[in-house]
Amino acid sequence: MSELQATVEFSIELCKFYNVDLFQRGFYQVRVSLKVSPKLPVKVEASIPTSQPKSMTESYVYICDIIIIILILPGSELAFPACVVNGVGISKTFQILYRNEEVILDDTLLFRVHILVDSHKIEESIERADIGLNIELWFTDQPLVSDQLGSITCVSTRNLQLTFSPMRGLHYHLPVLFDYFHLSAVTITIHASLVALHQPYIKSVDVSFIINFSLFERWFFFCIY
After folding, report:
1. What gap in Å lies between CA 83 and CA 90, rounded to an integer?
2. What CATH number should be reported for the domain holding residue 38?
3. CA 22-24-25 angle, 5° bins
4. Could you tell me which residues are beta bridge partners of residue 84?
5. Which of 26-40, 132-146, 153-167 comes out lowest in average pLDDT?
6. What is the pLDDT of residues 39-50, one digit of tens each?
7. What pLDDT is attached to residue 23?
8. Which is nearest to 80 in space by CA: 89, 91, 92?
9. Exposed, middle or buried by CB within 10 Å (0-12, 13-18, 19+), for 61?
10. How many domains, the chain?
11. Domain-located, residue 56
12. What is the 3-state secondary structure (H, E, C) of 63-103?
């Protein structure tokens, strides 16, 4: 079988967060990651393509030679900016105080999926990747300072199956509603396109690799910071 490497680019925009009736007041994050079939040789890269608005004021805290950036949002509490940690895109941290509250996130995450495909069956090979989007809501009722990052936990999860066609791409806007006990929603815009097709540089013996941290592993990661 003659192999080629296809690159599919996913642009995920987290637009707005809607608090319908969250019963817990505190700090929230929305986390996004891509799921790909483990049966295919795949490499996933995640990044944030756009910079934060210049109207925000940045302050830097140096702890053990690690720089923690804290943003002071106009008219709101301290919050951490959007970032990518081990292949997981994390929205800016925001505070929820009132019912029926709306928060503008305006965070864009970029995922590039490199897939080895059969040069004679490119479309079928990409469709077999079985790409999905994992969306999580994280919460803490403690102020997010450096020594309390381990207190944030995942409280709700939603999984979306992305039906991607290399010929048509994927362009969709939808609200994602979390569960009844965390009654809230986030609006998401998804764009996906096949952007490259060339000779492979990833090995066919590689296994699909997306780091999906368990709750304990995520907790441990934040504790070390």
Report:
1. 5
2. 2.60.40.150
3. 100
4. 89
5. 132-146
6. 888 899 999 986
7. 81
8. 92
9. exposed
10. 1
11. no
12. ECCEEEEEEECCCCCEECCCEEECCEEECCCEEECCCCEEE
